Amino acid sequence: MVAGMWIIAFYLLGTVAGKEVCYPRLGCFTDDPPWSGIPGRLLTGLPDNPEDMNITFSLYTRETGNNSQLISAINCSTIQNSHFSSRRNTTFIIHGFGSTGKEGWVVEMCLLLLEVENINCIAVDWKEGAKGTYISAVNNLRVIGAEIAYTIKILKKVSRCSPHDIHLIGHSLGAHTAGEAGRRTPGIRRITGLDPAGPCFEGTPPEVRLDPSDANFVDIIHTNAAHFPAVGFGIHNTTGHLDFYPNGGTVMRGCTDLHPDMKQSEFEAIIADATVFGGCHHSRSHEYYFKSILYPTGFCGYPCKKYDSFDLGDCFPCPKEGCPMMGHYADRFPAKLERINQKYFLNTGADPPFAAWRQKVLIQLSGAKKTKGNIKLVFHDAEGNTKTYEIASGDLSEDQVYVKYLDVEINPQKTTQIEFLWDKTLFTLLWARLGAETVNITHGDGHRSTLCGRGTVTYGVPQLLTPC
After folding, report:
1. What percent of the chain clears pLDDT 70, i.e. is strictly above it?
2. Name one GO biological process term (predicted).
């Protein structure tokens, strides 16, 4: 059955005959190993002609507003006559399979970045090269990467733009495209891989995929990693200096479109379907990055060997060197270059803006010595937002300390009040009263705060917590 599926996949995806193809400005491309003929890349081949892909570079600056200017390395006057400035940093944003750089998240990302930074933002569009089969897009990204590298070369020549001022952001196949551009351009300041594609890249040699040597700093956000038994569209292995695995890196909170029981043979049969690659989990990577621009402290990653340990609280709070922020501000982490393949875990909210702040909560009760029910904390901010989190349920006793790790979706710096709340079960005495004797909260940076409830309340009545 599996062999049959491979035969079907072969005819669905196709391959390109030949050993080498050469294109002006970009050089030659071969289908020799490791580009083809190795495990995981048996069906890959040669890229298409760049002229057939209609590759465009749209420049957004604060001067262009919501509009853009097309620039071309082939026609240098388009750069000279544009608002591109070497006095600013430059960011390239690169879409993936079945997507576009003319609209949608790529353009929205450029416009948001310009609100917080005065940069040159270049949206790369290779829609024509990314709309065929997945395998053809895998082949074509080598040409796109070469075109980006050539454009950087011309920008350096025309405007003295330095690779040290360039940041490449790529999603899925766009992440490996950024890696190809970085491999060809020594000194790139930063590459951000947004859920780099897994099929045809997992376990391959570094020259084939994005890896830490492609830029001075490489950070990765994994949101749909293919981690057995689940099947995903992203790469699972670490492939940067800092690799972030929000919610474990495979299944994202708030998404419902993943089928973790999908068989590998079924995945191979549908891999040519572009619509599959627009899944919620896979797209969360660029959504998280987008929101990280707006919430600089809302995506703190904790160093840990595995997600299960992190989720249990084993890797909390941050070590003495601190923790990096996943997303836009990852490069502010002082220890980012101490080693490669550093794993960081965090949990996010299920809905936008996705930001969450991890806290360790310890509650000592007062009131009824023994009762049944559940206890909660309610967080409020100045904008009227509230979030309720259950701490414990079942048998409740004032002799026990209740511990819970929370990923609170209210910024601690904007929290105006915290309330204790409890609900009784069907058989709880109507006159029972409970209160929070003390609530100790440890934050991610290690600092602690202690709150007291002062007295008791009946069920369903919130008790305001104040500093002890």
Report:
1. 89
2. lipid catabolic process
